[in-house]
């Protein structure tokens, strides 16, 4: 009798253990399924607000700085403007386009177009001009005057434009650009988008071309 009770108790324990394990596996599967659904939702939802743009920009910029994107590039030389175009891809989908050029030796410009589903949703443009700012012929002091522009787009139209200006000297204390407040401005993105379309037309070129 005692042996029979022991066997029944053992069977009951094994049965409960299997049931608990099955429930845990089901919950785990549901959790993974929900994560996949949420991920798909994020990918499929369109970028509608400035906050959405900031989140998507942060994701792509992290991939860029950590060198997780594939890239192709070509150079151009147009009169006194010498530049390089770099196109960044994730799973063969265009994500970022960078246009950097220098002009007249004292000016350079960098424009990054951030892309989602073949549409530009954010543009970051940084223009830098430099000049001498004192010092001696042996040890001249230089000053970079920098203008940053941040343009948030929806359906091809600018919905917010921010700008900040500051100077960086080769000696002395300099401001922290991240602590400088952006000013909201009006902006015309016509030329920037025209340049972007020209880049796309030449994106498969190799080596150096003349003008975009």
Automatic annotation (TrEMBL):
This is Lipoprotein. It comes from Chryseobacterium soldanellicola.
């Amino acid at each position: 009798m005692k042996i029979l009770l022991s066997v029944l108790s053992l069977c009951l324990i094994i049965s409960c253990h299997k049931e608990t394990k099955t429930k845990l596996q089901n919950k785990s599967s549901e959790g993974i399924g929900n994560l996949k659904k949420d991920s798909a939702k994020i990918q499929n939802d369109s970028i509608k607000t400035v906050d959405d743009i900031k989140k998507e920009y942060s994701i792509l910029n992290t991939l860029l700085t950590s060198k997780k994107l594939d890239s192709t590039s070509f150079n151009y030389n147009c009169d006194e403007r010498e530049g390089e175009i770099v196109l960044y891809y994730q799973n063969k989908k265009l994500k970022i386009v960078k246009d950097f050029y220098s002009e007249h030796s004292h000016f350079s410009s960098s424009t990054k177009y951030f892309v989602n589903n073949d549409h530009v949703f954010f543009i970051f443009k940084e223009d830098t001009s430099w000049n001498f700012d004192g010092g001696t012929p042996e040890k001249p002091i230089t000053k970079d005057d920098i203008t940053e522009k941040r343009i948030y787009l929806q359906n091809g139209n600018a919905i917010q434009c921010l700008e900040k200006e500051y100077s960086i000297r080769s000696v002395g204390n300099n401001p922290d650009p991240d602590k400088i407040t952006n000013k909201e401005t009006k902006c015309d993105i016509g030329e920037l988008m025209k340049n972007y379309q020209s880049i796309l037309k030449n994106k498969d070129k190799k080596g150096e071309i003349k003008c975009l």
